[in-house]
Amino acid sequence: MSLGVTEKKLDNLHWPLVLCTLIICSLGVWNLASATKNAPVIMALVQFRWMLVGGLFIALLLLADYRWLQTAAWPGYVAAIGLLAGVAFAGKKVLGARRWLQVGSMQVQPSEFVKLAVIIVLARWFARDETGLRKGHYGILDLLRPFAFILLPVALVMKQPDLGTALVTFAIAMTMVMFAKVKWRDVAIMFVGGAGAAVFAWSRFLKDYQKQRLLTFLNPEAYAKGAGYHAIQSVIAVGSGQWSGKGWGEGTQNQLAFLPEQHTDFIFSVWAEEHGFLGGVVLIALYAFLVLAALDVAANARDKFGSFLSLGIAALFFWHAVINMGMVTGLLPVVGVPLPLFSYGGSSVVADMLGIGILLNVSLRRFMF
Amino acid sequence: MMLVRRDADDIREIRPRAALGALIVVCTMLVLVVRLYQLQILRGDVYVVQSIANFRKSLFVPADRGVIKDSKGRTLVDNRPSFDVFLTPAFCKGKERDEVIEKLQDYLHLGQDDVERIKSDYQKSWFSKDKLERFKPYLVMLDIPRDQVDVLEAHKTEMSCVNLIPTPHRSYHAPTSFGHVLGYMSEVTPEEMDDHPEYRRGQTIGRRGLERRWEKELRGADGKQNIAVDAKGRELDKDTQEALIPENERLVPATPGNNLVLSVDEKLQRAADLAFPGRAGAVVAMEAKTGFILAMVSRPSFDSNKMSGRISRAELKAISEDPLKPMLNRVMNENYHPGSTFKTIISFAGLESSAITPGSTVFCGGGYTMGNHRWRCDKPEGHGSLDLKHALSRSCDVYYYTVGDRVGLDAIAEMARRFGYGQPTGLDLGREIPGIVPDSTTITPESGSARAHAINAGIGQGEINVTPLQQAVAYAAVANGGDIVLPQIVRRIEAPDGKVIREFQPQVLRKLGLKESSLTAVRGALRAVVNEPGGTAYRSRLQDIEFAGKTGTAQVMKLGQKQKLDPTTQAYFSRDHAWFAAFAPADDPEIVVVVLNEHGGWGAEAAAPAAAKIVSAYFKMKREETAPPPVPALPPPPPLATSSMVQ
Question: Is B198 within the bounds of a domain?
Answer without folding.
Answer: no
